[in-house]
Write the structure tokens for this entry.
Amino acid sequence: MTTLIAAHAAGASLALVLGAWQLLRTPRGDRAHRRVGRVWVVAMYWTVLSSFFITELDPGQFSWIHGLSALTFVTLTAGTWAAVLGRIAVHRQFMTGSYLGLLGAFLGAVAVPSRDIPQLLVHRPVVFALAVAAVAVASATVVALCRVGPRVAVVPVPEAAPSAGLPG
């Protein structure tokens, strides 16, 4: 496993967990949803863009998986743009589709015994467990940080003295 593949898998894993959190929680559209969503989009873009530099399935060539990466880039961009425009139903459809594509890619990565994830689990289970724990901690940290409000100092405003001759 190369450093690029490990970083790609880390981004995909973070996106997998954060995306599930986004889809399963209510309400949606609040500050936490928007903040976690921004981190999810960055993790997804990292995953998509880094995939174009991984050519292990067909050395030196793009494979059909890269076509799915290009499609995900388009759906992710369309979903983000829909959110910016306030087209929430369209945003929901594109982001859900992007997440389901990620989920499908994950299932494909773990279902084939010769792929890196099953091999890591079998041959280096401690490293695999540490990677899973790191993704869990990173995801929980992102969610916790995104749920807190901005840290603003509250300065009390002195009460104004009533003016003479004016109702007050």
